[in-house]
């Protein structure tokens, strides 16, 4: 069949009679833009029928005739997802406008989910399977951060990422039931909280046999009910909660600021250039030991970026919170360069690989490094040669458990560190992360010296070079140790640090 602009009425009459096997040939041949609403409606109906038979061909037909507004595109998207047509789906996401049909379908799925809950009250395993298929097809590449910031495609954003949610986040929720996290999730998921609710139910059923945790543990019941729109049909009715089934019966005591130094500890938020200058002046005024740590918002979703939100710098009686969100990059870069090169400041960190990457991103300077920072984790590894008990697990929290008897309270680790102002619990958590490094550094260094002296029967005094993870030896008279390799030149002895004096902060900087 050969057609031209003058054959529209004939085309309209012929379309219902064209067998589906020949429709592809018609698509290639009929290269004419159709403006007639009646013809468009018929083409849309034909394409919709074709979607059910062959999603690829249906999509091709719909795009050929620009039928996006007239055709039942959600049906097409459903067919593509169910058949896991990855290549076709990726084509849908090349333009932001192409995502709109998928959004329509996902909104419809949300409505179906609510409707089935009200009518059947049943379990929606089809939704979990659907989420898994979305994950396998990897259709999230077309979404950009701009879409989400503009409030578009929220439901699709939820569904695509729900299957990829880091279970670590839910394990943090298991430990804490953090109210701020609940509120953040409510805002993030918006109207699609029904899907989030069901996903929580599935995870809870799998990992917590009592199925009661999210309603009863840590006062999260009211927030979960709010999340579920007044009550969840998935969770069992109220019943006595068996805490021992889901976690230890005796809550663990956590480390506090009073256990790692003098109190009260003065906290300062540094968010202006003047406050940053005052902070640098205070830290570099005298010989000072400074514990440092970084905090950033957890990267839970595909659109999230790794960006440092807070830089904590703690002395024995002060703790500065460098606001990496509000301060300009150039100011942070200059501050970091001066602090890291200050000769009278001894910086102490723990596990510096991730911190180094965050600082480079925050300053925009790839040449900045933390080679001058004393890594307590690296120091601790020197103790393993003396006893396996020093082979610590669990990161900084595990180290605190070993050296101080209590682990860190990690309830705020996965909270939003870019939100201002910080909650009091966030401030205490951030300050403790940096402050605990000071006594830990002293304990580890003293233990290294003690074990080395014992090993050498008191004849040789060994000081740990914590920056390089090596040891240097000398006898009490200052003579060179004969056992030292001649090919290695002895390092210069570090100048003795003066006693830490009380730091003074310029007026107006205290919160």
Automatic annotation (TrEMBL):
Q: Which organism is it from?
A: Sphaeroforma arctica JP610
SUPFAM superfamilies the record matches: Ribonuclease H-like
What segments bear the compositional bias annotation Polar residues? 462-479
Please report the name of this protein according to its UniProt entry.
3'-5' exonuclease domain-containing protein
Q: Which domain of life is it from?
A: Eukaryota
The region called Disordered is annotated at 462-511
Q: Lineage in the entry?
A: Eukaryota, Ichthyosporea, Ichthyophonida, Sphaeroforma
GO-annotated biological processes: nucleobase-containing compound metabolic process
Q: Where is the composition biased (Basic residues)?
A: 486-497
Tell me which PANTHER family the record gives: 3'-5' EXONUCLEASE DOMAIN-CONTAINING PROTEIN, EXONUCLEASE MUT-7 HOMOLOG
Q: Which residues form the 3'-5' exonuclease domain?
A: 267-449
The Gene Ontology terms for molecular function here are:
3'-5' exonuclease activity; nucleic acid binding
* InterPro entries (UniProt xref): 3'-5'_exonuclease_dom, Exonuclease_MUT-7-like, RNaseH-like_sf, RNaseH_sf
């Amino acid at each position: 069949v050969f057609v031209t602009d003058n054959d529209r009425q004939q085309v309209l009459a012929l379309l219902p009679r064209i067998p589906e096997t020949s429709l592809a040939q018609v698509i290639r041949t009929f290269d004419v833009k159709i403006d007639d609403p009646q013809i468009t409606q018929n083409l849309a109906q034909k394409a919709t029928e074709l979607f059910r038979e062959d999603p690829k061909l249906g999509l091709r037909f719909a795009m050929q005739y620009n039928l996006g507004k007239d055709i039942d595109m959600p049906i097409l998207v459903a067919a593509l997802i169910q058949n896991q047509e990855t290549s076709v789906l990726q084509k849908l996401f090349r333009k932001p406008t192409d995502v709109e049909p998928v959004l329509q379908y996902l909104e419809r799925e949300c409505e179906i989910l609510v409707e089935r809950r009200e009518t059947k009250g049943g379990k929606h395993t089809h939704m979990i399977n659907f989420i898994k298929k979305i994950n396998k097809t990897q259709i999230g590449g077309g979404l950009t951060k701009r879409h989400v910031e503009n409030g578009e495609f929220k439901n699709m954003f939820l569904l695509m990422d729900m299957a990829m949610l880091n279970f670590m986040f839910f394990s943090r929720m298991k430990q804490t039931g953090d109210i701020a996290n609940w509120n953040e999730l409510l805002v993030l998921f918006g109207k699609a909280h029904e899907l989030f609710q069901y996903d929580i139910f599935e995870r809870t059923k799998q990992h917590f046999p009592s199925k009661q945790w999210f309603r009863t543990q840590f006062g999260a019941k009211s927030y979960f009910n709010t999340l579920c729109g007044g009550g969840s049909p998935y969770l069992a009715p109220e019943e006595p909660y068996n805490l021992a089934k889901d976690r230890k019966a005796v809550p663990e005591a956590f480390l506090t600021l009073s256990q790692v130094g003098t109190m009260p500890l003065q906290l300062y938020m540094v968010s202006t250039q003047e406050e940053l200058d005052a902070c640098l002046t205070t830290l570099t005024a005298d010989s000072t030991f400074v514990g440092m740590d970084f905090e950033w918002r957890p990267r839970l979703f595909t659109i999230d970026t790794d960006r440092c939100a807070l830089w904590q710098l703690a002395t024995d009686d002060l703790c500065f919170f460098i606001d990496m969100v509000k301060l300009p990059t150039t100011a942070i870069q200059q501050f970091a360069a001066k602090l890291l090169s200050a000769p009278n400041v001894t910086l102490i960190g723990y596990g510096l690989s991730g911190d180094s990457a965050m600082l480079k991103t925050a300053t925009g300077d790839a040449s900045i490094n933390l080679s001058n920072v004393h890594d307590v984790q690296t120091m601790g590894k020197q103790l393993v040669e003396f006893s396996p008990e020093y082979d610590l697990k669990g990161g900084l929290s595990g180290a605190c458990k070993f050296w101080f008897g209590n682990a860190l309270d990690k309830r705020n680790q996965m909270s939003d560190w870019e939100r201002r102002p910080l909650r009091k619990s966030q401030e205490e958590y951030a300050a403790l992360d940096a402050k605990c490094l000071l006594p830990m550094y002293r304990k580890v260094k003293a233990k290294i010296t003690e074990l080395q002296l014992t090993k050498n029967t008191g004849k040789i005094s060994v000081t740990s070079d914590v920056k390089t993870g090596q040891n240097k030896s000398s006898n009490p008279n200052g003579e060179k140790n004969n056992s030292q390799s001649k090919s290695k030149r002895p390092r210069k002895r570090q100048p003795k640090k003066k006693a830490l004096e009380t730091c003074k902060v310029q007026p107006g900087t205290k919160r």
